[in-house]
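fyi for ur records
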Amino acid sequence: MTKIHYTLQPDGDQAILVHFPSLPDGKRAFLLKKAQLLPSQHLGIVDIVAGYETIHIHYDALIFSYKDVCAIINLFLKTLSFPANTPYGKHWLIPVCYGGEVGPDLEAVASHAGMTTDEVIDLHSQQTYTIQFIGFLPGFPYLKGLPKPLSMARRSNPRPHVPVGSVGIGGQQTGIYPVASPGGWQLIGRTPLPLFLPDNDPPCYLKAGDTLAFQPIKRDVYEALHHSPHLWKNDHML
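which gave:
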């Protein structure tokens, strides 16, 4: 049984922040998956929200006290058994058209990194990223694993409109805009796949703990998949 090093602290009067900074990504994915079952197992636990190295546990103070929830969390973490040689999350392959109109900041990122645009595309798309959490917008994945040469600060003047599907770089992270919104990330490409489907249950298929890779595609393929994204899901989703 893996020993988990963690701390607990109150966050308001009905939430607890669980911090586990040294847990490997794979085990973190399994922990998050099991933690999502806590609301169904304990009526007084309302919601579980993942962060970079944390889990936010919201509870009903009319049912549980802070000490009650701490006891539940301690028991959960101390008895959690990680399976050996078992994938903890899903792996997703996301097609991206890089540069041009759909990636207006690609040249700026390349200049900042001292690379050609093709080298940036190769480096960005050859990585396996871990989805640390979903936030900022419904379905927005914060991805860990961006190579250091591609790290670049957000734009000093955010755009009032970032198109849906835009793939961007913000500091040491990369991510995908699941809906159109204002935003200041450096935009290097765009995916034709919808990440947020409000009529589906669940509306977002990407989960914290999953892994993700990008597949460069040409503009004509982007246009075809934009109109028929199910073709990629059926043939290429892992």
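The chain has seven helices and 13 strands. thats all i got for now
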